[in-house]
Structures are given as structure tokens and as C-alpha cells.
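Check out one such.
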Amino acid sequence: MIKVHKAKEYIKDGDSEVAKKDSNNCTVYAFASAFGVDYETATQEMTKRFGRVPKKGVPVSKLIKEFEALKESREEIQGCVITEVISQPKKQTKWKLGGDYKLRRTRLKTFLKEYPEGTFYAIMRTHAFTIKDGEVIYNVSRPYPEKIIIKYAFRIERVDAYTIEPTLHAAPSVVPTELTEQHTGVN
């Protein structure tokens, strides 16, 4: 069974006056819960970065384009970076008729099995939500969330957890043998 949390209860200030007056705001709730910010900060970020207009949704194509650009630039957002883009995940399965191997779209239940840990900003056909460590943070109630088909998912990590180790290429140390013998006392 998939554990689902209501986004309004999960994020700080999720039941604020601004949130109550807003609609078509799944992208804002998903942003707030994925990046760990309050509703108003999420609204400002969605407006600034994604061009969201109050009471209007953000087109899925715009979300995908902007998140992919943020991943490429490794730009920090609220102390987090996007480290992975999972584009239209597909799973190879054997169909009952014919016995051929086919690729099918990945449902939420399968996605959670394949990615049990981490934070993801997930996009389905016309909706956005958050997945955190195998649990779903959703702002609407659906009778069968396990049947949701994941279109895109963006892995989000805290900057302090995501450090890039610099690769140092040191020149080989060449020390003349007579200098080494002098300093070590070897004759």
C-alpha cells in the first residue's frame, strides 16, 4: 500500500490565506514539499522560474524544459540542486498475449519500488506531486494512486548532501636520488 500525505498538512504554511485563495496549484505544492519551503516561497519561485500566474497551472512542457535546464546548470534552489532527470521511465515486461517483450509506462507503484529513497518532483500527464523516501505528497485525493503513470521525475538533493569531489591531477613527484640520499642520511 502506498503511503500518501496531504500536501497542505505536510508543508509549512500549506493552509495559509494565500494557499486558500489560489487554485490550479499542484506545481506550487509539489515545489514546496520537494524543496522544503513554505507555500509563499514556493509561489514566488514558481512565478520567477516557471512563469506561473496565480490561479493558473504551469504547462508540463514548461516544467520539463525548466527543470532540465536547472539540472544542466546545477543551479541551487533553496539549498537544493536537481541531480537526475528520469524521462518517461519505461519497464520491460512480457505481455500475456504473444509472449513478446514490450516497454510499458511506469506506474507510481513500480517507480517507488525502483526508487525507494530520495526526493523527486514527479510529473504525470496533467499533475505534479512529490515523492519523498517512498511516500507520496499529494494535494488532491485519488482513489488509486498506485495506477498513476509517471511521465517525468526530477531527483532533488540538498546541497550539503550533494558535493562534487574535485578531481586533482597532481604531477608525479620527481626527486633526484642524490637529494633523497642526502636528506635521509643514506650513503
Remarks:
- The mean pLDDT is 81.
